[in-house]
TrEMBL record:
Pfam families: Reticulon. One of its GO terms (biological process) is response to bacterium. The chain crosses the membrane at residues 75-90, 96-115, 169-199. It comes from Dorcoceras hygrometricum. Residues 64-248 form the Reticulon domain. Signal peptide: none annotated. It is a multi-pass membrane protein. One of its GO terms (cellular component) is endoplasmic reticulum membrane. It is found in: Endoplasmic reticulum membrane. The keyword Transmembrane applies. Residues 1-40 are annotated as: Disordered. It comes from the Eukaryota. Keywords: Endoplasmic reticulum, Membrane, Transmembrane, Transmembrane helix. This is Reticulon-like protein.
Length: 248
C-alpha cells in the first residue's frame, strides 16, 4: 500500500509543478506582450508629408472634412452628382452656361405662371414662391477665403522669384509645365472636374489604407534620396558654389 501511495503523491507533485511552470510562462509572455505594447508608442512611424494628425484634422475638420471623407454620404454624393451633371452638360453635350440659365428660368417661370392662373379653375392656392436673399456673411466668407489663398500663392511666388531656393524654383517650373500640358490635353472644366473627383476620392482612400500607403511612400522617399545623392555627386557638386548654396 505504501508503494501505491508513493507514485500517487509523486504524480500530484508533478502536476503541481507543471501548473506553476505554465503559470510562470504565461505571466512572462503577458509581461513580454505588455512590454511590446509599451515600446510600440515610442517607435516612430513614418507618415506621408510628415503627418502627425488624423486625416480629418489635416483637412481642417468640420463639415468640409466630413464631405471629403464621405462621413455625410448624402451631401458628398449630391455634390459629386451635381458636378458630374455639370460636366456632362457643358463638356459632353457642349451646352453653354448662358443657354442653360435662360432655359431653366423659362421653364420655371412658365410653370409658375401657368400654375398661378390655373389655380382659380382648380380651386387650389398657387404655390408660394420663396424669397431668395443671399446672406452678406456668405459672400464675405467666400471672398475672404479666396483672398487668403490668393495672398498665400502670391507670397510663395514672390519667395521663389527672389532666387533663394533653387529646389522650389525647379519644382514650381515643373508643376507649371505639367499643368500647361494637362491644359493642352483637356479643357479647364474637365481639369476642374478631375480635381474635384480626386478631392472626393484620394482622402477617403488614404484614410482607409494609410498604413500601406505610408509604407510605400517611405520606400519611394528612400529611393528618391538615393537617386538625389547620386545626382548631387555627379551634377550638383560641379556647380558653382553660389548656386549650390541655395539648395537645401
Amino acid at each position: 500500500m505504501a508503494d501505491e501511495s508513493e507514485p500517487a503523491s509523486e504524480s500530484m507533485v508533478d502536476q503541481i509543478t507543471e501548473k506553476i511552470k505554465s503559470h510562470d510562462s504565461s505571466s512572462s509572455s503577458s509581461s513580454d506582450s505588455d512590454n511590446d505594447r509599451d515600446e510600440k508608442p515610442d517607435a516612430k512611424i513614418y507618415r506621408l508629408f510628415g503627418r502627425q494628425k488624423p486625416v480629418h484634422k489635416v483637412l481642417g475638420g468640420g463639415k468640409p472634412a466630413d464631405v471629403f471623407l464621405w462621413r455625410d454620404k448624402k451631401v458628398s454624393g449630391g455634390l459629386l452628382g451635381v458636378a458630374t451633371t455639370i460636366w456632362v452638360l457643358f463638356e459632353l453635350l457642349e451646352y453653354h452656361l448662358l443657354s442653360l440659365v435662360c432655359h431653366v428660368l423659362i421653364f420655371a417661370l412658365a410653370v409658375l405662371f401657368l400654375w398661378s392662373n390655373a389655380s382659380t379653375f382648380v380651386n387650389k392656392s398657387p404655390p408660394k414662391i420663396p424669397e431668395v436673399i443671399i446672406p452678406e456673411d456668405v459672400i464675405l466668407g467666400v471672398a475672404s477665403a479666396f483672398r487668403v489663398e490668393f495672398n498665400r500663392a502670391f507670397d510663395i511666388i514672390r519667395e521663389i522669384a527672389r532666387g533663394r531656393d533653387l529646389k522650389k524654383f525647379l519644382a514650381m517650373i515643373a508643376g507649371l509645365w505639367i499643368l500647361s500640358v494637362l491644359g493642352s490635353w483637356c479643357s479647364f472644366l474637365t481639369l476642374f472636374y478631375i480635381g474635384f473627383i480626386l478631392v472626393h476620392t484620394v482622402p477617403v482612400i488614404y484614410e482607409k489604407y494609410d498604413d500601406k500607403i505610408d509604407a510605400f511612400a517611405e520606400k519611394v522617399e528612400a529611393e528618391f534620396k538615393k537617386q538625389y545623392a547620386v545626382f548631387d555627386a555627379k551634377v550638383l557638386s560641379k556647380l558653382p558654389r553660389g548656386i549650390k548654396d541655395k539648395l537645401p
